[in-house]
């Protein structure tokens, strides 16, 4: 399966990048084809008013690498791993811009919107967050945002790993072993059980069998 790992911190050798590398290694170990991209290389502009910004042929008027990233790497991927630092209790602005700008490419005005709309659903998504504060509430809002984003896009949020660290590489010393957890998330991207029951969903009483 194809896995796209997106690094969303401006610090290329920072904590979320370490988590991303660990998840990528885990996914490779499980036999998947992994592509790692740094959002700084692709996303320069923020979303503008599409009506006035769009070119005459309907394509996005922001001249950076986002469209190539979207069409060549993101749409074809079977799973996404999003690695972000926690900034003001949210995702990095670069990642938020990447999410916002999906709007332009999903709208009817964009000539390739059919490909984008068909390619977004069904992906497995893993989230990696590096942050200074270990207080659980610090990442709650962001985790909820990813849950809603993936629900809206009909994707499966497979797991979230939070690594505590501040200075470069700090996350390696987190006794909770987030690098191990990120590797495990990468390894199990397509095997991890994701359920979302309603009261009448047919199911067995036992969740696991000995085969699991
Ligand atoms: C602009 C900015 C905002 C931040 N906001 C928070 C925050 O709200 N909560 C927190 O725990 N850490 C916060 N931090 C600390 C980073 O999340 C932390 O240093 C993280 O390890 C950085 O990841 P990186 O090395 O991948 O960039 C912030 C850092 C910056 C630069």
Automatic annotation (TrEMBL):
Cited Gene3D superfamilies: 3.40.50.360
Q: Does the keyword Iron-sulfur apply?
A: no
- Say if the entry is tagged with keyword Amino-acid biosynthesis: no
Where is the Flavodoxin-like fold domain positioned along the sequence? 1-155
| Superkingdom of source | Bacteria
What are the UniProt keywords, alphabetically?
Flavoprotein, FMN
Q: Which InterPro entries match?
A: Flavodoxin_fold, Flavoprotein-like_sf, ISF_SsuE-like
Protein name (record): Multimeric flavodoxin WrbA
